[in-house]
């Protein structure tokens, strides 16, 4: 059958009228080296399933469409990036407020002076105000300082526990009156590493008036009595020595 088919093709291809009616490129397809393994589509099949015509666009129209797509993709990418940055930002919109502990009596309302203020333009300030006598605390090496507060506000007892971020001291931490020695609270704030507006060193030093006066004596000796005069005083370790 193969020999008969080949003889038939030779007779047909020798016919000039038959070859003239063949599609363009058909003879080239038959002469390809791999035509024995390929299955070329017949002219009838090509006419039955024509290739869809390719649309012709001007270069300006194509550039315009591509530019529009690129612009849309860029906007979408930027929007997505904005959403990602917003959700993973280290400084989100609603930050936890910083707690400022003000140690002072109730005659001054310190909350109104910090209302609407922000730390570094990011953190709100929450003011907790109490006197030394209304405070207790516990300080840790790595856990900071936990303050317990019990105050009376408009006849209501308010009890809170919190970790202050800053402390502003407006009261004397020591007095010779009974129950007026709060130096242990100053030590606790220092132990817990709490940041203070006024130095805890100075507050603790000012708990002892003779200690403060000794610092003034150093300035007196450095500048002289004309530039830095002092009222002459005498120090005794106890009242017994004063009597003797």
TrEMBL record:
Principal location listed in the UniProt entry: other
Protein known as: SYN3 protein
Gene name, Swiss-Prot/TrEMBL: Syn3_0
PROSITE patterns: SYNAPSIN_1
InterPro entries: PreATP-grasp_dom_sf, Synapsin, Synapsin_ATP-bd_dom, Synapsin_P_site, Synapsin_pre-ATP-grasp_dom
GO terms of biological process kind: neurotransmitter secretion
Cellular location(s): Synapse
A single GO cellular-component term on record: synaptic vesicle membrane
Gene3D superfamilies with a match to the protein in the record: 3.40.50.20
């Amino acid at each position: 059958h193969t020999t008969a088919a080949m003889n038939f093709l030779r007779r047909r291809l020798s016919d000039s009228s038959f070859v003239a009616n063949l599609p363009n490129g058909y003879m080239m397809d038959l002469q390809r080296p791999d035509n024995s393994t390929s299955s070329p589509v017949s002219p009838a099949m090509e006419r039955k399933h024509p290739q869809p015509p390719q649309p012709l666009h001007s270069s300006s129209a194509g550039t315009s469409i591509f530019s529009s797509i690129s612009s849309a993709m860029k906007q979408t990418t930027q929007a997505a990036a904005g959403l990602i940055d917003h959700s993973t930002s280290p400084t989100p919109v609603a930050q936890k407020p910083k707690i400022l502990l003000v140690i002072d009596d109730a005659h001054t309302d310190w909350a109104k002076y910090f209302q609407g203020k922000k730390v570094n333009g990011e953190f709100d300030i929450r003011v907790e105000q109490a006197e030394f006598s209304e405070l207790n605390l516990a300080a840790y090496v790595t856990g900071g300082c936990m303050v317990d507060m019990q105050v009376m506000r408009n006849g209501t007892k308010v009890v809170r526990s919190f970790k202050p971020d800053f402390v502003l001291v407006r009261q004397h931490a020591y007095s010779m009156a009974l129950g007026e020695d709060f130096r242990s609270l100053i030590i606790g704030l220092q132990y817990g590493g709490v940041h203070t507006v006024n130095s805890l060193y100075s507050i603790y030093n000012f708990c002892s008036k003779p200690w403060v006066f000794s610092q003034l004596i150093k300035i007196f000796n450095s500048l002289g009595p004309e530039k830095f005069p002092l009222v002459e005083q005498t120090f005794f370790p106890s009242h017994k020595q004063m009597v003797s």
